[in-house]
Design brief:
Layout lengths: L1 E10 L2 E11 L4 E5 L6 H9 L6 E6 L2 E2 L5 H6 L2 E4 L11 H7 L7 H14 L1 H5 L10 H13 L5 E5 L7 H16 L3 E5 L3 H7 L2 E6 L2 E7 H4 L3 H6 L4
Parallel strand pairs: 3-8, 3-9, 6-7, 7-8
Antiparallel strand pairs: 1-2, 1-4, 4-5, 9-10
Helix pairs in contact: 3-6, 6-7
Length: 234
């Protein structure tokens, strides 16, 4: 579904990504892990159309999307849930969700998707009239992920969903992502919590200094000595 070939990306004169290559197959749950500053978020921003590549290719379902404007990438079926969340805090849960379906012109389909999202996130259904700005941190993360589902994406790019959350809320958010993947949504997850990420993903890539340092099945990476020493504290 997604294929990146020798991608370079930079902010002005500061190059962040150096020839990275990766792929995500349909239905997979793939992790992108590594230290701060390794280029994980830059990778997602490049895929989502928020940062044009300096060099290399980004292919989505065989079509080149590198440098395509973000709104067009979204309409192709790619949803980006950023760590900033970008919720409308003075609007209700329901209003935030329906705004996530702005590209879906069929009102009936919007409401059907809304009910499907509520079935995945019953807590949001309970709070549909609550203002987003009054919700807990974990609930806001769930709302951001759920809003990303409202456009019926084929691929979801999820950036640091555990950032700033207490451990029990992290568990809730990760379980929500697993539910999404079980419905057939393909997910590329950027996350600092390496142990938790490797526990729920099928495969993972390790980014270090803007390059892919390692890749493989998540279960195998958990046993890798470098991973254990550098990221798992073992």
């Amino acid at each position: 579904m997604l294929k990146i070939e020798r991608l370079d990306a930079s902010y002005g004169f500061l190059q962040i990504l150096w020839g990275i290559s990766l792929h995500v197959e349909e239905g997979e749950f793939v992790g992108l892990i590594g230290p701060n500053g390794a280029g994980k978020t830059t990778t997602l921003r490049s895929i989502a159309g928020l940062l044009p590549p300096k060099d290399g290719q980004i292919l989505f379902k065989g079509q080149s999307i590198g440098g395509t404007p973000a709104y067009k990438v979204s309409r192709m079926g790619v949803s980006y849930v950023s760590e900033a969340l970008n919720l409308f805090v003075d609007m209700s849960v329901r209003e935030n969700l329906l705004l996530g379906a702005y590209s879906v012109r069929d009102k009936k389909r919007q409401l059907e998707t809304l009910e499907f999202v509520y079935s995945l996130f019953p807590r949001l259904k309970e709070r549909e009239n609550q203002l987003a700005g009054t919700m807990s941190g974990g609930e806001r993360k769930m709302l951001a992920i759920a809003r990303g589902m409202m456009s019926n994406p084929q691929l979801m790019l999820v950036d640091e969903p555990s950032l700033g959350l207490a451990p029990h809320l992290v568990t809730d958010v990760f379980q929500s992502l697993q539910k999404l993947q079980q419905t057939g949504v393909t997910i590329l997850l950027v996350e600092q919590r390496v142990n938790a990420t490797l526990a729920i993903t099928n495969r993972a890539y390790v980014l270090e200094h803007g390059r892919v340092a390692m890749e493989g099945p998540s279960s195998e990476l958990m046993k890798n000595e470098h991973i254990k020493a550098a990221y798992l504290g073992v």
